[in-house]
Amino acid sequence: MRGHGPIGATLTLVSLVGCGGNPEPKQVTPPLSGKVRQWQTQGQRLLGQGEWELAKSAFEDARQLAESLDDLHGVVEALNSLGAVAVQERRAEEAVLLHRRALALAEETRQPSQLLPSLTRLAAALQVVGQTAEAQERYQRALSLAQESRDRKQEAIVLNNLGLLDLKAGAFDAAKAKFESAQTINQSLNEKREWSANLLNLGLAAEAQGQLDEAQRQFESALEMDKASEQQVAIAGDLAALARVLDKRGNKPAALAYYQRAYWSYRALEDMTRAREALQHAIGLARELNRRSEADILEREWRALEKIDSRQ
Description:
Elements: H1 31-48, H2 52-68, H3 72-88, H4 92-109, H5 112-129, H6 132-148, H7 152-168, H8 172-189, H9 192-208, H10 212-228, H11 232-248, H12 252-268, H13 272-288, H14 292-311
């Protein structure tokens, strides 16, 4: 999870990889099961690009085919992925239901590889809807399971998300410690997407404590890493975070530039709610800086958005 929403919620997707070992005898994935995996991979790629409707379609195809094959592994993964889309589309209550169903099926398998992502994603959805007590309980079980099974990637995800709960509760030192622990694991695994989320969240912790120079440094590092790995959804959030902290530091011209970049990034992703928020901040700063021509251009953009809304 990254710093968006009620204290932030973008779910970190878990990609399933093959197990190592003796290559003999070679196992061939049946054609239809291979199609389930193919749709899952396609959906995860689309989700990372902000193409939520296309991602949802791919995950639905994977779910239906997996159900027809009684492929519990495929059904669990598809349900969790559909829940991730629901959170992005601000349908968190629906996400909770999807993840609860996924967890129930995962419990039948008794496999940590199924239980861990299901527990973590359910906890993340609960976190978004404000059910922090149950979220904490689910995270703690996931953390214990991750440590028992030595799943370092999942351990880092859970530590990061527990840090967000601490951050919301005002336990800044505890939050920072968890983010740093998660970052250390992700660095060792070279998990750059999750690592950049840790950087962003460390920036949020610093910002909450008034350490604005440190917050800016962390946000800049997150942006650099997300741009290098072309994490489009994350890039938009990084830009908005930088704009906000630059504004707090009194660097209004730089904040204006970053809000405009955040606006275009969110608009390209069709996240119109956050796009409007960024544009509104940009208009206010342009007026404050007495940049009349720039404010006029931004206000025309705002009116264009209103026309689009009126047609829908």
